[in-house]
Records
---
Amino acid sequence: MSKSIKVSIRHLYKIFGGAPRQALAHVHAGMHKTQLLKETGHVLGLNDINIDMREGEITVIMGLSGSGKSTLIRHLNRLIEPTAGEVLIDGRNILGLDEAGLRALQRKTLSMVFQKFGLLPHRTVLDNVGLPLATQGMARAEWESEAIQWLSRVGLDGYAGHYPHQLSGGMQQRVGIARALTSNASIMLMDEAFSALDPLIRTDMQDLLVELQNELHKTIVFITHDLDEALKLADHLVILKDGVVVQQGEPQEILLAPAEPYVEDFISDVNLARVLKVHSVMERRILSDALDGEIEHNSSLECALAMSEGNINKRYLVTENGTPTGSIDMSMIIKAFASKPGRFIH
């Protein structure tokens, strides 16, 4: 059963400048970003964005610097107002909310994890984590236990009385995640949340997010410029270029069928054997004879190659939690690589 749409963005435009509505008419007439800037002095930040984000999934929005990804996420909590379009959360257009409605949305429906942690330096870790509930008027005696629970869940037992400057960068970001979870918001916005961290710590934080998501099933909008991070986290991947969505979909599908040269170049350095999953290339027909074993549907093609030990005649039953879902043989893997020479070995 397909998941319901939690966030829907429809025909969203953002133009920066003194007369954005007039500039929008030029965009509708076909003027591109460079020409718009040259002739009108306006910057086209987002150009006709249409994205559906499903409940309980991680939607990763990625692109190079200046692609519009951070501008886009700031429309979801109306830190930036659009020039045109709609942003619907649970079917309601949030652009029509008054000040009180917007404040309620930002406090109860949305939480945000920032790149630079966004912690209050003069408050303890516990106070920072409990802040969302405290600002909703909840008494300290009520929110303390909730905050302590989430601190423990992100691996920060014993740090409640510390101050942010006493923690490492990775620990500070764990505090930021705990604070977002304490709010009990159904949607988490994460804008380059791990990009300021060292590589090993960044990997730990990605693993923590995956672990928490497997348990909590939040709707997460994650912004990154890092393709490896995007492929690790995304249920739905959106690639932006110059404020335009150039391709979106399930990451495995994008890897196997890039829609245009820009996307092809973007993913050209990916180790396909390591990131492509067995279920992406398997045959849906379940074979019952002459099989050489079983392999989990989320196993990498690298794992399948290792199992075959170089024997191109091996065939495997593909299972998901013990239930057969298809079959795969080495010819399918070779076919997946055939049109992508040089991208499966690094």
---
Amino acid sequence: MSVLRRVLPFLSQNANRLTLQRRCLSSESKPAPWPRKVFSGVQPTGALHIGNYLGAVKRWVELQEAGEDVTYCIVDLHSMTIPPEPDTLRHNTLQMTATLLACGIDPARATLFLQSAVPQHAELSWILGCLTTMARLTHLPQYKEKSANMKEIPLGLYLYPVLQAADIMLYKATHVPVGEDQVQQLQLAQSLARAFNNKYGRTFPFCETLVNEGSRLKSLRDPAKKMSKSDPDPKSCIMLIDSPDVVLEKVKKSVTDFKSEVTFNPDERPGVANLITIHSLVSGKTTDEICREAQGKNTGQYKLVVAEALIEHLRPIRERMERYTRDVGFLAGVIEEGSERARAIAEQTIDEVKEKIGVDCFSVKRMLKNVRQEQ
């Protein structure tokens, strides 16, 4: 009891200090701006298709080349909502690492790491989960969509958005590049950052979305649907590892319409517009430039132009992927080095969070040690 009486004043002083800090921060009219930091993640689901690459990874590389402070994570914990086979997950993680490097992610200029190698992701996820409600989570679009056809819903699927918020907040990211269809997924992270700050003081920035507009590619076989590797028709999407002959065949078999001229009209001619979008993204040309150059060609002839541009754009990526996948030691080294850098940042954030919420056990241990030494 005597030890406890000696410790309680320390805890009370610490609590009063944090309360004063929060009051001071809340009274600031213009708090210092958060340093701009970009964060994004990708699941290790094996090879990427061109929709993943052109809609996300290519944008990651552009942000890196622009000199942004970028952190990219292979989110293997997220891939466990449906328990994977261990060997498959290991293989997919290495393949994803090779793919990102082949697409242009440079470990010297970007922090590239493995989510499960940084335990603070799960730790912050639990803390944030205690700040949200079941009703809030069940109303998220992602949960509704994925659980619609499930008889028994895994808890991981339910908590997935909380872990996603922890991924972002752990590195105090200010900007998250997303596709147009993913904007709603970040609303929980924004809400949790606001809730934590209101209760414990200014700790997390309000992350903003960097929307990559106009690059949501459609299925080659059904342009009414999003391009997806889970589509039962293998000709619906083009994988980065596809050979030139396979790419040519898939583009030739893509669904267009009965009009022969090449025009960009996503609403009335979604199949042709999809091909033009792909062509634009790999060539850097505008849709207007492409349509002018395609005058005099029918859609069948234009498909060959698209296939050629796509093959040439993907060729160096595929060659680099093949080279990287043969050097497992190199890939493991890249991931370990990046994970060490990520852990250093994550540890600072989680220590700050623990102190503010009152579970800073290390401070308590130090105080107990000091009291005993004084005795």
